[in-house]
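Quick illustration, no need to memorize.
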Amino acid sequence: MKAMIMAAGLGTRLMPLTELTSKPTVPVANRPVMEHIVALLARHGVRDLAANLHYHPDEIRRHFGDGEAFGVRLRYVFELELSGTAGGVGQFRELLGDDTFLVMSGDSLTDIDLTALLAAHREHGGMCTMAVKSVDDPSLYGVVVHDDRDRVTGFQEKPRREAARSNLCNCGIYVLEPRVFDYIPAGSFVDFAKDVFPAMMADDVPFHVWRVGSYWNDIGSLDVYRWGNFDALNGAVAIDLPGREVRPGIRIAEGAWIAEDAVLDPPVLVGSGCRVEPGARLVGPVVLGDECRVGAGASIDRSIVWAGTSLGAAAAVRGSILGRRVLVGERAQIGPDGVVGDGSQVAAGAVVDPGARVPAGSDVQAGSPGPAV
């Protein structure tokens, strides 16, 4: 079986983290979120993969290459202009058009049972089976309406809670038959939810829902991204975590050095090559990316720190997210709910205000007002 991974999105709701990073390579538990999708597909025997690229495409190509290192075969199409969720799939009609195939978002975190989804699709016998998940607030999602045979009868895009006809959101995971390409005109911007599925309903073409009983997270906002990382540390989603569990809830990757008097309160994941100096505190949930340095007496509390970032002595990060290669000076304070983009510098003694969003490459000086949300 073949699968197409949708990897062309801009990730605008994750700014400033995605200014210099494609959304599929945003790290969850120190691995690109798309890597977790590739691993999931491989576990279910789906190893012939394709991905459409647009935003920071070389970053994805560099990490995954031809897929051999991940046990799959991976091919790409670059979209000079975005062509929509279905239009991206249409780029691969020659590759995918000879049998049933899967489509998955490259920027969601899930341990969905793809084998069970495929079995349900074959039982339904329709053109498409879409994975749906029950959510508490339908107003945040596109929701799907169905009849008592699970056949799709309608959609609502982010309805008000009181107007929602369903609490099942579309997870962006589909099993499709090749004849779906009849609804995807070549060279056009085509969206599954807005174009393909309404046209199928108008033609009375049967397609169905399948409820996801396991974990699914669309990594759709900074808060949701934070929850996804913490859920991974707490074991709520079945993904492979790097490193070795040295005691319950504490995972340390190869080459990391932790001072004897450093305090690590679980859950904590420390990446490879990290250095955590004397008196430092990591109060979980904490994800510390590869090659990070936490200076003497510095503290990180309920935060995510990307690779190559350095905290000076007595610096404090609380409830925040720091991008790659951020330099935080001695005694600087960040957060709660601060987000600092890649390559930024926070001077010694500077304060990044609660809720601030610091663009990539910024220089935050002591005594200056914190960047605005």
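The longest strand covers residues 168-176.
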